[in-house]
Amino acid sequence: MPKDAGCEILQVEGEWYQIQSGDVNGYVKGEYLMTGDAAKARAAEVMSTVATVTTETLYVREQPNTECTILSLMPMGEELEVLEDLGDWVKVDMDGDEGYVSKEYVSISSELQKAMTMTEVKYGQGVSDVRVSLVSYATQFVGNPYVWGGTSLTNGADCSGFVLSVYAKYGISLPHHAASQAGCGTKISASEAQPGDLFFYGNGRGINHVGIYIGNGQVVHASSPKTGIKISNASYRNPVCVVRILN
Fold first, then answer.
1. What's the farthest any 2 CA atoms get from each other in the chain?
2. Whose CB among 7, 70, 167, 216 lies 3.0–4.6 Å from 172's, allowing a Cys bridge?
3. Last residue of a domain, which of 111, 140, 157?
């Protein structure tokens, strides 16, 4: 369970608390939980306002109107951080870029992060041990902070710094720049992607974001200062390219 995640305390057994967080039910030591007024104050500080897509495909636009450029397509169920409520439109964050979606096709809520089960990352068949190891290593940092220009997996990294540091653990040196990382390795199709491959995203100005594919149609990435390192649908933005670094 990442730092600042929310949970419901079901019962207290001495120094152990039984909790429910998302789909996870288990026990944690009470010394690692914040409760009462302090917890309420912390929740108000770190809680994100999220727009969840409620239609099959949602257009993210450059401006809050239907005549402007479409920046990206979002699948049903994808969550976007809300920057501003504009009435009929919502300004959302896309890894540092801003876009607009019609409020008619999203559900707005405020939420904290939740715990994840160990089976939520699926690898598929024929995946090498190093790929499984790399993905397991990368996902343990979910919930840690985003820091522009950073490379620390614990204290803060940006998108390319996160990828750089994860790959460095496996003896692979990559540049600290998403567009430069896209020039490494071999370009493949999204349908060929295996855990550990890199998904790159961009806008009209070029590639500006990267995430690590973890299988099951998902990527782990350092998303934004508000959401930190998180897991998203790999097609939450249209990938510009997919690159294989691991042989």
1. 60
2. 167
3. 111
Q: How far apart are CA 193 and CA 202, in angstroms?
A: 18
Pick from 226, 215, 86, 84: nearest CA to 143: 226
Under a CB-based contact definition with an 8 Å cutoff, are residues 101 and 61 in contact?
Answer: yes
Is the residue at 116 inside a domain?
A: no
Specify whether the CB–CB gap between 91 and 98 falls below 8 A: yes
Q: How many distinct structural domains can be found in the chain?
A: 3
Candidates 206, 222, 234; CA nearest to 166 is 222
Q: What is the mean pLDDT of the chain?
A: 88
Cα 40 from chain centre: 24
Q: What is the pLDDT of residues 55-108, one digit of tens each?
A: 988 999 999 999 999 988 888 888 888 999 999 999 998 877 899 999 999 999
What whole-number percentage of the chain has pLDDT above 70? Answer: 93
In a domain, 58, yes or no: yes
**pLDDT tens readout for residues 173-221:** 999 999 999 999 999 999 999 999 999 999 878 999 999 999 989 999 9
**Helices (H) then strands (E): counts for the chain:** 4, 18
pTM greater than 0.85 (yes/no): no
Let me know whether 59 and 42 are in one domain.
no
Instruction: In whole angstroms, give the CA distance from residue 157 to residue 234.
Output: 20
What range defines the domain where residue 89 resides?
A: 48-111
Q: Could you give the C-alpha distances from 168 to 147, 150, 153, 160, 182, in angstroms and in order? A: 18, 14, 11, 12, 16
Pair (145, 164) in one structural domain: yes
